[in-house]
Amino acid sequence: MSPARSQSAATTAAAAPDPGHPFHITKEEERRLRLAAAEVAPSLVIGQPTVFDEYVRQLMVPPMVMDLFRKASSIQLSAWEIEAMRRHLAPPGLGALPEPGLLRRIMMEKARRDKTHPPYIRVACTGRGTWDHWATEFNYVPADDEPSGDIGSPVVLELWPAQHYSPIHSHGNTTGIIHCLAGRLDVMAYDHLEWDATKRGLVTLTPGQCAWLDGDTYAVHKVFCPMDGGGGATGPEFMSTTGEFGASFHVYLNEWETALDTDGTPSRDEFEYIDELNKKKKKFATYSDLSWNVLRRVLTHTDLD
Fold first, then answer.
1. Which of 6, 144, 272, 299 has the greatest number of beta carbons closer than 10 A?
2. How far, in Å, CA of 232 to CA of 59, rounded?
3. What is the tens place of the pLDDT at every residue in 184-238?
4. Which residues contact 305 (CB under 8 A, 6 or more apart)?
């Protein structure tokens, strides 16, 4: 190719429009990345293998990760819990609650505080969450039903409203799983933490399937719920107008908790991510929005009639 043609091609590529959120890829790139994910070893997804090569790729997943998967494989949300969550995520009216549900209130507050990506909900399976007190303050549960506890958990439930997504982020030296419990979730794996990092593969998780990570493999990713968000293009200030969502169960263990050698940094207490607006690397303290004890009490007090 001549220098003139090379310059023209580069200019055309630079001027090409961004395909948009959440992954900034074209349909052809999506097809290629899904094919890449179906061949990458070790497998990005853990589930019941159906063909020989899939079994071999899962055989290469570290034993510690497979142990986490086996222990989580029977965890599930009940139908009534899923329906109650849907009502608390949906806008008021629309067949849901007459006032914003607890999960919707938290989403609205998180969106007000951080406009870099659509909000999702982190629920600590042990300990306390930032907005636990809202359960009684807004009368979702009786005032004498508020439990006590500590903030922080190595195990979290994450609720992903339809068309909402995380920024690209790294889980550092932790080892863990992302176990889908409800809906559908797309997970994009990257080779390192930068805005223009190479994408390794794109997978869709359905209930019962896991994505995984450790300090050396798949530690950088982005999660997106591809379900119906009520129309319009997703983006940093998008807010779903439906109650559809995906749910995932996450376990993140520090390396010293897995009997692996480590230098002690970083840990699950703080992860790094890429700001969707200025494309710069930032740090995120891994607080949770609610505790499971509080959320389940709220769900049991939710009218499903």
1. 299
2. 41
3. 999 999 999 999 999 999 999 999 999 999 988 999 999 999 999 998 899 999 9
4. none
CA atoms within a 13 Å half-sphere pointing along the CA-CB vector of 78: 6
Q: Which of 97, 88, 75 is nearest to 240 (CA)?
A: 88
Can you spell out the DSSP letters for 168-220?
SEE-TT-EEEEEEEES-EEEEEESSSSTTPPEEEEEEE-TT-EEEE-SSSS-E
On the CB side of 298, how many CA atoms lie within 13 Å of its CA?
Answer: 30
Residues in the chain: 305
Residue 181 in contact with residue 131, Cβ under 8 Å?
Answer: no
Q: 237 phi and psi, to 5 degrees?
A: -105, 20
Report d(CA 128, CA 201) in Å as an integer: 35
> pTM for the whole thing?
0.89
